[in-house]
Amino acid sequence: MSSPVPLRLQVVNAFISLCRADDAWPSTLHDAGYHLAGLEIPVRGEAGVIVIDAVAQHTDRDALLAAECKSGANVHAEQARRLSELDAAALLRMVAAPAVGGAAPSVEAVFVCAGEHLSRILQGLAACKVAAPVIAVSDQAISGHGPAFADEFLNAAFSDAVPVTAPPPAYLTLDSESADEDVDEHVLAELVACMAQGVDDLTVPALAERVVQLYTRLGDGRKGVLRRKIDASARRLASRQPEQFAYRPSTGARRDPTIGILKSPEQHDPRGRTQAYQALARAATAPRSRHRPRPEVEGQLDLLLHELNAGVDPSEEEVE
Amino acid sequence: MNRATLADRFADAQTPLKTFVIEAHHGGEVDRFLTAVADDAVVLSTDDAYLHRMVDGDVEFVIDHLDDRYWSFHTWSPAADAQRLLKSRVQRRRDLDWAWLPAAHLSRLWAEGQPTWLRTEFQGEQSLPVDDPARRMQLRLRGSQPDHLLAMLRDTPYAPALAYDQVGVLVEHPDFGVVNEAVNSMGKFVATGDSFKLHEELVRLALDRYRGLVDAVEARTLSWSGDEDTGLRLDGEVIALSFSRPVPDLERFLDAMFSSREPFRLWGVPRILGADLAAVEAVDLHVGQRLRLEIGTRWLRIFLGPGTCGNTVARLVTNLQHRFDAGITFDDPELQRHLVPTSLTLEAPRATTTA
Fold first, then answer.
1. Rounded CA gap, B98 and B32, in Å?
2. What's chain A's average pLDDT?
3. Closest CB to A38 among B80, B231, B285
4. A166 neighbourhood in chain B, CB within 8 Å
């Protein structure tokens, strides 16, 4: 499955997108009445705390979908069983949207996986005797598999494969498992934004907040992992481009490490500024550069026409 | 000086009035902002709290900031000099930007006006192959029905290049008077006539439509709430656009878009994921804000974070109309209605305060 983000994030992004009315991707769950109630929701049960990847809640009744988003092909039997035995009231207490009332709350486990892993996931669920529907996401379609949903509207929604022509929108692009090159891509873009804003120095935690929108909302554990990843990225960029960036580790006097911008394109005149920004991009793209045909020199024809029409129609010049 | 003085001068002037509309993020400190924008120029107050004069050498502007966000810089000084002075300020300040009027905002400028002039402008050299029939195209049409001629090209290979860039219109209104107005896609209005009030009204109406687009975009910025203890929630929307024709060479297209140059002013290192998919963590260099874009050969998605200026999307879409596809559309019907609005109709004037 081609994707702008790693598969583990792509599967979560797919579930998020299915719950939303965005025009960028099918809104199958949203159209069946569900909206995203939360991500990474912890629920305490008899066997301890289980963290649910994503939860969708019906708009008109207290029906919940608890989704396990699988990037790989393996099913963890204990996790799957605990998901399928969730207490609806306990989960309802953990989601932010107010309960609707009326019929008793219900929760249904659903597994979301990449199309290429569907058969292994179905086998894994059968092996651990967990009866839960599976939503498979591929380059071509979204499709429902395995046992029927308890919600008839969902069975109708997934009775036929829903075609797609693009991967789901990448709402989540970085997490604590992201590869160095993915982190560097985001950190460099943020440092370029800092240059354009005239910011010349910032601490690593401040950089982390700017790079990862979710950062301040994460628990200390994951925040720490992300901060260390961004810290490492800042070090790499500073060592790769020492004339541009300086990494300063924390000291007794400096609580947090910082990254300084030593040279910014904003220090140049407009033409030099553009060239300096282009050089920054080239430095990051050197491996994929390739020869391209030289584009036409823009404005040549305009110059001829300007000379040809000089003084002929001054009224038009007023708005050019 | 006040609005009455401006109105008298407008009616008597031998040269056209130029009004440049510029988006100004003054942060609530108008006086300090005016001084900063003026730089070496002199700023003078007037009888009207919302009008200031800015004198820069031989060029004088009257700055109307009654509209808190979109300021009008009026001048009777030579157009080229005024343009140069404003351009240098917009280029070097992140808190100023042009109003990037989409093509349809120009094509449907005023319902009851008499069209006088129309120009389409398309510069696809950077993003289209040499054999594209309308890689570089400009049409200039004079007369009262230029739209009718353009309509004949709608179902031809030239259609994606029919992006309105300038329009002219003669507006006569029994309550206001007459103005002969020319407008371009960067929010520059040039006018002669006998009614400054009518000119102001036309600028205001065009801007209200533009404001509608920018506000609708800003209402869709993506933001997270909650935390890991209670679950994370996502508000806002991804802004999705569709092209009316496929991108023939994605790498070339991306090179043009993320070159850091005018007019896009986008910095980014596109990650190309096959022949028909790319993703970019980009920076809008004009405002210094990061945004994510995902690009296919038939579509484009924009992820705007909290606080991102909607002008970023207006500038991107308007420039794509002139550089790749005049037929680009928002997938969101509400955004599309703001991109292609219905024609404006002038209302009767409000009570006059002219002295």
1. 20
2. 87
3. B231
4. 277, 294, 296, 299
Predicted-complex ipTM score: 0.89
The vertex-B329 CA angle with B154 and B95, nearest 5°, equals 120
| B228 chain-A contacts, CB cut-off 8 A | 40, 42, 217-219, 222
Q: What is the pLDDT of residue A289?
A: 38
Residues 6+ apart with CB under 8 A from A170: A4, A5, A9, A10, A13, B279, B292, B294, B303
CB contact under 8 A, A284 and B234: no
Block residue for tokens 């990494």: A247
Which residue, A6, A7, A16, A83, is CA-closest to A45?
A83
* Inter-chain contacts counted by CB atoms under 8 A, chains A and B: 182
Where among B98, B114, B149 does a domain terminate? B98
Q: How far does A251 lie from chain B, in Å, by closest CA?
A: 30
Q: Which of the residues B128, B283, B319 would you substitute to probe the A interface, choosing the one with the greatest number of A C-beta atoms within 10 Å?
A: B283
Provide the domain count of chain B: 2
The answer, for B166 touching chain A at a CB cutoff of 8 Å, is yes
- In a domain, residue B259? The reply is yes
Give the nearest partner residue to A189 out of B94, B232, B281, using CB atoms.
B281
- Chain-chain contact of A189 with B282 (C-beta, under 8 angstroms): yes
Residues A72, A175: Cα–Cα separation, whole Å: 16
End-to-end CA distance of chain A: 48
Using one digit for the tens of pLDDT, what is the confidence trace for A225-244? 999 999 999 999 999 999 99
DSSP state of A266: G
Per-residue pLDDT for B333 more than 80? yes
Q: Is residue B59 part of a domain?
A: yes
Rg over CA atoms, chain A:
26
Identify the residue with better confidence: A311 or B140: B140
Mean pLDDT on B34-59? 96
Range of the domain at B9: 3-98
Q: B-chain residues within 8 Å CB-CB of A288?
A: 272
In a domain, residue B106? The reply is no
Tell me which of B72, B98, B124 is where a domain ends: B98
- Burial of B48 (C-beta count, 10 Å sphere; 0-12/13-18/19+): middle
Nearest by CB: B283 against A189, A278, A296:
A189
3-class secondary structure, B22: strand
| Cβ-nearest to B269 among A95, A166, A284 | A284
Per-residue confidence band for A292, with pLDDT thresholds at 50, 70 and 90: very low
In this structure, is residue B230 part of a structural domain?
A: no
Helix (H) or strand (E) holding B88: helix B79-92
- Contact list, B261 vs chain A (CB under 8 Å): 274, 278
Per-residue model confidence (pLDDT) at position A306:
54
- Which amino acid is present at B129? P
- pLDDT digit string (tens) for B149-177? 888 998 899 999 999 999 999 999 888 89
